[in-house]
């Protein structure tokens, strides 16, 4: 397989930063997104918007940014009783995880991404999972990613490499990484076009971007942005 990369891309802050990271490192980069019946389905509408904005703002990356793919995983939403796939309040469960946790989501995402990468001749899989500033999801942890890489390579007799550029950095450092990769132009693009809010709110504009401002995803993003701004000023 070649040094081509496939980025798991949701049009959120993290996956957009990871896409920029990949575009800096690989000559050929494709993207893949997943429609799993998420209640914040607006992220699917923002995917082409973010990709177009990246191509326009960064001509050097535009030549490396190839085909975008969207995979229908609606069955995941239909069998998941979670606050990301049902119109219910986000709460903590007895097992210590928020009910926004969609069991198996990242495992399925990586399996389908690897299947696509196998066909497309891409060796590198890039995903924005993180276990520093996160909601405690077990399928975002480093041990899970290492296990998935092993399983995929054994099961497909391949040499995939799963890259997790954000694994050990917090949200403030993720904002800083975006600036390092693409300057204030990329930071502004992330603020204006990416979508993180679990409630799918694109009507409320904050200094860190659009969202309800109260869901766990908005809280992580906003607090990270405030720390980023404060650290940049000091």
From TrEMBL:
GO terms for biological process: tRNA queuosine(34) biosynthetic process. Keywords: ATP-binding, Ligase, Metal-binding, Nucleotide-binding, Queuosine biosynthesis, Zinc. Belongs to the QueC family. Catalyzes the ATP-dependent conversion of 7-carboxy-7-deazaguanine (CDG) to 7-cyano-7-deazaguanine (preQ(0)). Gene3D superfamilies: HUPs. NCBIfam families: 7-cyano-7-deazaguanine synthase QueC. InterPro entries: QueC, Rossmann-like_a/b/a_fold. This is 7-cyano-7-deazaguanine synthase. CDD domains: QueC-like. Pathway: Purine metabolism; 7-cyano-7-deazaguanine biosynthesis. It is an enzyme of class 6 (ligase). Binds 1 zinc ion per subunit.
